[in-house]
Amino acid sequence: MPSLFRSALLALPVAALALTSTALTSATAQAQSAAMDDAQRAAIETVIRDFLMKNPEVILQAVESLQQREKIAEAERAKKALAENQQALTRNAADPVAGNPQGDVTVVEFFDYQCGYCKAVQADVQRLIKDDGKLRFVFKELPILGPASVIASKAALASRAQGKYFEFHNALMAQRGQIDEDVILRLAKSVGLDTDRLKKDMESRDVLSVIAANQTLAENLGIHGTPGFVFGGDLVPGAIKLDEMKRLVAAARSKS
Question: Which residue, 31, 50, 72, 99, could crosslink 137 as a Cys pair with Cβ 3.0–4.6 Å?
């Protein structure tokens, strides 16, 4: 056996012993360090707990600060999403539009025919459109309150083929109480719609794609309830009064 090879073999146990010794020393040091860290951590936690017990208002201040930061971050996300989705939001030819088609300010409303808040603001929406001759108003069907809402939206969108969207829309909004397919078709007939044709058109690809697109757009914008308004570049969730609507339109107009 060559001497070099024999020397290497003899050195292996020594190297292994050295590595083992080093590993044990390192493990002991880590254990001591961990013990010290635990002790320090316990001391720090005690100080923090005592401080919070004596100053509980700090917790409320921290929560309020976090909520404010989240609110600002959400507003920034919404503003970015509005900018990125302007075409789909305001210029989708499949959406019903009221008011002045060439208006200098566009307002968009996401709504559901079973939403009590949507029905509550309906009169103010109509008044806003009537009073402002330079306003363009886009209606976004967003059925989120169950199967009856989906049927109502499909029927409303299908009514456009017969030129009766706004008459039917207003009738659905004026309806109080629960709605179902029978109620929806009765209202359709009351405004002069051919219900047999309507039922066929309700299942068209065009109608279904509008609802799907609106749901995707609402999700992208962070709209999770109805009504949801967009005034120019500002997203405004929830029901608002006529005076606030007019103020928001004026603000949007001043920025355009």
Answer: 99
Reply yes or no on whether the pLDDT at 2 is more than 80: no
pLDDT at residue 124 is higher than 90: yes
The pairing of beta strand 228-231 with beta strand 105-111? antiparallel
* Mean pLDDT across 200-209: 96
Cis preceding-peptide flag for 227 (omega within 30 of 0): yes
Lowest mean pLDDT among 2-11, 85-94, 108-117: 2-11
- For residues 192 and 89, give the distance between their C-alpha atoms in angstroms, rounded to a whole number: 30
Q: What is the pLDDT of residue 235?
A: 93
Q: Are 101 and 131 in contact (CB under 8 A)?
A: no
Single-letter residue type at 125: V
DSSP 174-229: H--S---HHHHHHHHHHTT--HHHHHHHHTSHHHHHHHHHHHHHHHHHT--SS-EE
Handedness of CA 10, 13, 19, 25 (dihedral sign): negative
